[in-house]
Amino acid sequence: MRQFLVLFISAVAFYASANERIVYESEVFIDQEPLQDQRFKSVRRYRGMDYTLPEYKSLDAWEKRAKDLRTRILVTTGLYPELPRFPLNARIFDPLERASYTIYKVYFESWPGFYVTGNLYVPKGKGPFPAILSPHGHWESRLIDTETNSIPGRAINFAQRGYVVFSYDMVGYADSKQVSHRFADSRLDQLWGINLMGLQLWNSIRSVDFLYTLDTVDTTRIGCTGASGGGTQTFMLTAVDKRVKVSAPVNMISAHFQGGCLCENAPGLRTETFNVEIGALAAPRPLLMVSTTQDWTVNTPIIEFPMMKSIYDLYDHPERVDWKQFDYPHNYNKDSRQAVYTWFEQWFKGRKDTAVVKEIPFILPAKDSLLVFSDDFPPPGEMNETRLKMIMRQTFQKQLLENWPDSRAELQAFKKLYQPAMDHVLQVAANPNVVYKSINETKFAGGTYTAAVVRRDEANDWIPVIRYTPETTLGTVILVHSLGKRETITGYGSWIEDLTHNGYEVICFDPFRMGEHTVPQKEDSTLLELRHFETFNKSDAQFRIQDILTLDGMVTGKSLWVGLDRQASLWLILASTQHHDMQMICRDLVLPGSVSDLMQIFMPGLARIGGMQTAMAWAAPRVTVYESDDSLWQSFNVNSMAIWQGADRESLFSNAVLDADEIIKRYRSFSKID
Predict the structure, then answer these.
(1) What is the mean pLDDT of residues 473-488?
(2) Concatenated DSSP letters for 545-594?
């Protein structure tokens, strides 16, 4: 009885003629439980998981990975393609004189009208001097002075030893109050690649730019050190900016805790990596890992440091990485500071003495004397979060237009620039090894009906598939509907019949979390509630595009993909940026760049790099768009792109109504079947 009920509910029948030919099922798993996709079982988290560094057997293998990771950081923080270097318009004022150094107030623009704020500590005497960037963590501010952490005390000690120090604010702290420390915390912001981590990282990069403008700074000797969230900034900046020559992240790099704040978690950043691997991007530059037994760096000597050293060993420079551990709560206290002074003296001053450099007693100025702004001297302009995000979006759009191709040569340059960004936004494997498993096979007049499962060999992700294969096959047509194969078979059964009758194999499938590809309810109810979920886990749309590419690896011979609705068509166009031989028919692509469309296929950073306009630069010669208003696309000269890439017709758009005959016509046109 159970089997009869399942068949009654799931079966969809159609007829090839007056005689019944076959009952077409829309279900793969009738008499057995669906396979459990590993993607539901391996949810990544910012804490409570132990991540492991992959084994890199050669320097070439690591450097290839390192290049890819640097691009990942820049893309996910909204900093790729490289942003314009806006004028800093720096102000250095109100010197506070001391016997051996001077403290200045500083502000400059990292974005037009948005200020980086802090204090510059400059030694007296003849420079140029080595310089230290000093980002702070989630303590009170850059002015904190306690037994646990004294940021001004650290700066004064460096200055007394002949270092220029720039101590600057985290966003939303002390003088940096134009926007809050909850900046850009929405899915729309994520779509645009706008996030707090990106803003802070850009502030740090511009802080290096600022140091480069100072005659007192030896730009060949710039270092960075900070603790906690400032430690995250330290190793992130070191990872992407090779002008930082020595670094010392304090109480931060951990294999089981990745940072719990927005300023440490850009969406998409750690889907396939973690902080130890990111920290290793410092190699072969000197790196000191300061840790404590009373926070998440407790395992540094036995876990994180050996991982890090394995990378430095590839460069034959194991002496350039080291660790120190103390027994205190989370801190940047005197013992930790002394370890850092010793490290920088060794690498920037050539100190050979292995004894610990002792901290010089210091007297701090009043906090008010170090603040940049006050009620009587507020930040210039009227910057706020809404305005800053508008400036960012306008900058991204201007970049896209400046790079948008107007010739064949410019198209190639555009692809070279934006391909890495598209790769890291999609985060898919383009050429997976595919495993195919038949579940049920039934003969019908002239062919075979098969229910099957397809997965990547390197991952336990499964896709339920229905195939209709005629005895003599001219090629394969894959019908894609955003709701899955039941909707495809129910709504387009006559197309399947016509296609198989004319000798074309037809494939339908359930994309990620659709149809039979369902999430166990207990997992589904909690996934999106996880803190910083998007930083560590891919979106549904990314997984669905992966499913398309996995299925493409299953098909032998020429194939044609057909997007039956708008969302499925968007998936196909994006997938084509990773597989440059895909031939497609897409339906209902109404408005390129529509934010509502992009939110339906949510992927962090997609709008930042041009969304569907950019994807069409790749798809143009291999797609025909049906049932759409082509006039909306003309400003993006996609017709010309098609011609530049070898298309044999002037338009991508067809005024015909899409049906099986049109699919066959399109198939014959690209495969040259008479």
Answers:
(1) 96
(2) HHHHHHHHHH--S-EEEEE-SHHHHHHHHHHTTT-TT--EEEE---STT-
